[in-house]
Amino acid sequence: MSREGVPPLPTKRPAMAFEDAARLSLGDTQLRFNMGKATTTIRGKRTKVVDEMPDWEALREAGRAIKDRTLRHLDKYLIQLEESVARVGGKVHWAADAEDANRIVAGLVKSHGAREVVKIKSLTTDEIGLNEALAREGIAAYETDLAELIIQLADERSSHILVPAIHKSRAEIRELFRRTLEGTEGLSDDPKALAAAARTHLRKKFLTVPVAISGVNFGVAETGTVCIVESEGNGRMCLTLPKVLISVMGVEKLIPTWRDLEVYLQLLPRSSTAERMNPYTSFWTGLAPPGDGPDEFHLVLLDDGRTKVLADRIGRQALQCIRCSACLNVCPVYQRTGGHAYNSVYPGPIGAILTPQLVGVENAGSLPYASSLCGYCYEVCPVKINIPEVLLHLRGQVVRKKQESFLGRLSPENVSMQGLAKVFSTPRRYAAMQKLGRLGQKLVVKNGVIDRLPGSLGGWTAVRDVYPVAQQTFREWWAERERTVKPKLPPREETRP
Amino acid sequence: MHVSLFITCFNDTLFPGTGKAMVALLERLGHTVAFPMGQTCCGQMHYNSGYQREALPMVRHFVEVFRDAEVVVSPSASCVSMVQEVYARVAEEFGDETLRREVAALAPRVFELSMFLVNELGVEDVGAYFPHRVTFHTTCHSMRMLHIGDAPQRLLRKVRGIDLVELPKADECCGFGGTFAVKNADTSIAMLSDKIRCVLDTRAEYCASADNSCLMHIGGGLHRQRTGVNPIHLAEILACTEEGMPAVGVAAATAAAERNS
């Protein structure tokens, strides 16, 4: 089963390869049905609301350009952000890696004598494994986003950036709530009833827990403002009710000015939930007057491999991502395997280019290959990340890494690729190989097709027949035609069975 | 016009009928065609699998073979997009300034067949006759890298006798993706089975495309399932006329379909 088979995250060591994890997911028919239905629905809605915008392409270009410029001057803008946050009464903490960030957050929670925190759904805190780190310090973290709560109660991993429980049906959620939440014996699987049950559970937490932890959608260098967008309003409860607010922000979430928000607040909702505007958009600029919000605000700035990604001219595009998940919803691979197959908090096409860069290609070398390169992700990306380009760039790194070792050089793939490269570089060798193939295939051709191939090519013939090398290749036919008088019409020739 | 054909290694070896159809079609339209015998492979398989250093000699070889061509026309949207989109990147990656200049000069003269006919020659009616029910699979590379738009459909609509039916979910990948189909065989199969269902829903006799690589994948599945639907390259349909079919791939495919049924 796919869900139990998912290894824990995040990982800096080789996880299960995508193709193996995908095989597990593909066998789960319920998952495939849920995924197919959900992604098709969101995709259709997105197209509709995007088509309404006459300046969509200009917005995309602006979104890309702002992020690009910010990343090129990241040092400058980060220092500006630190100064701005301090000016409005907040405190900035710098975290080089996950361990650093977790220690800082746990320290802040403990300094208030707290044993519980409420959380706003955040991929960044998932990436650093914050909940687990807090648990080790004896601190309980309660997720307040409905889908994230479902994932937490089920002790699972999210399978979608925006809709973490996309792979779960209503019936499954009802069973989960009955098992884990008090007073839900008679619960129905009506979405309203399910949401009400979660609300009852969460309300108690909002009113009693003293510390809230959030991620950050956009951090504005100019004003020190933190922006959080969400659909349910539970995040806003976290921002306003607890005494202490700690926001963990990946350094790439920075934007220079307040005005830049205009671009992203149009791009993000249409791309992610296919809404014209976000239901809840909260801005947090330092401290509010006493009694009107948290008494303390901490901003943890997280690197965790991001500056390393920044050093790669092609790969750095991945840092422009605003986590809208449009690429997931259109990806034909993601649609069928679900998010768990990617073994990453960042699944789908963006995960396939971000994760290998964050944890190293040697630890996630199968991810750049988890794509048929159909290019749909690039077409919908609101900030124009050329995902196929980065995938190919990373594939190159995977191959180079493999070729560094003796065993890697001996791998069947490397040997055959090197051989083919030699064959293709001279026409004489190439024509000889065609003849050789025609002779060799005599053993496997049956009724004009090949229905079984050996070794790693067996996957192909599991469901597909293969067309054999033609009795006369095009170049042989052409040579013959050049020799003889050019016929008016080419001779009849069987090319397909 | 003097057209140099880039038939691609794949079509040369496995689907020579497509190349012959192109020859028949272009000569019928009054052009002279040449097939530079030195051509081999565009290097896409190597490049896309991560063997980018290994692809470099193939890129150089392609440029050498076609350097002096007036126009290069190919029956593969995927290989043409390799030349148009990726060659410049390869030259830049390996810091080869001469190659970069040559690619910049050559790439704009390399065309996919349907774009060449519609955009360059301004021809839509090529005088073809094909009395069959046909659905058209727009490949991802032709759609999202080459942006061929509706060029193939415009050509097909002018074919006499044809019954052209739209393929449902036409913008979805068939799951071939080169080595993807081997490396991620199970996912590729899942994508293929959905594509085949869409093809069968059209009740078409032929599934056409501007690229034989996707057709090898879809056709291989259609054949294994004994659906009786035949894959066919756009060039082969356009090569057919009322007075005696040049047939090449098409007649053969029909004969095979009858044999299989």
From TrEMBL, chain B:
Q: Which InterPro entries match?
A: Cys_rich_dom
> Pfam families under this entry?
CCG
- Name all Cysteine-rich domain ranges: 3-83, 134-218
Matching PANTHER family, A to Z?
A: LACTATE UTILIZATION PROTEIN A, UNCHARACTERIZED PROTEIN YKGE
Return the protein name: (Fe-S)-binding protein
Task: Give the originating organism.
Answer: Paludisphaera mucosa
Upper classification of the source organism reads: Bacteria, Pseudomonadati, Planctomycetota, Planctomycetia, Isosphaerales
